[in-house]
Amino acid sequence: MGFEPIQPANGPAARDAEEFACKMQKIVEYVRAEILVAQVRHEEQANKKRRPARRFRVDQRVWLDARNIKTLRPKKKLDWKQLGPFRIKKMISPHAYELDLPASMRIHPVFNVSLLRPVAEDPLPGQRQDPPPPVEVDGLEEWHVEEILDSRWERRGRGGPRLKYTVKWVGYDEPTEEPAAYLVHASELTKNFHRRYPNKPGPDLDGARS
């Protein structure tokens, strides 16, 4: 039987093992570097697609997206799209702002920046303004009505005619036409209108058409 002597630590086998380990380490480092490069490129591409959060300043006036705020409108598609304008009271974070809301709204005043839109400093002449913010009336949201300007009967297909009023809102130039059912909390104004214009369409004491 032959005898194989033990190879010294610096022999050929040891050098081969060391070279192999070195190559493996370089491969691992190369793969790690490629992964980092890929991650950086991915983040750069993602950042290009992301829009930076809009910045507002304290006291700046903004419109508030009304998608999450319930009003008296019977159908969401007929509801106001935005409310305000309101003053920025405080920046909570780059993504959230506190608005100076009227106490009557009774909702939390902090909103995500995505729900805010700046008010044009110099709006175009005749530019349409949105209706004013809601106020609380007996626990329900209602709108500030300044004056009733006109009334008419709206003819509908199968249903009976519907009474509608042309309404002037407090602080806004352009009137809107609203069903009488939306103005139940402005009864004094509707009464005043019919006193001034007794021949205009409106409900009589029995609730029938005049």
TrEMBL record:
Domain Chromo, chain residue ranges per copy: 143-205
PANTHER family, alphabetized: CHROMO DOMAIN-CONTAINING PROTEIN, OS04G0603800 PROTEIN
Pfam families for the chain: Chromo, SH3_Tf2-1
Subunit organization: Component of the NuA4 histone acetyltransferase complex.
Name recorded for this polypeptide: Chromo domain-containing protein
Signal peptide bounds: none
Gene Ontology biological process: chromatin remodeling
Alphabetized Gene3D superfamilies for the sequence: 2.40.50.40
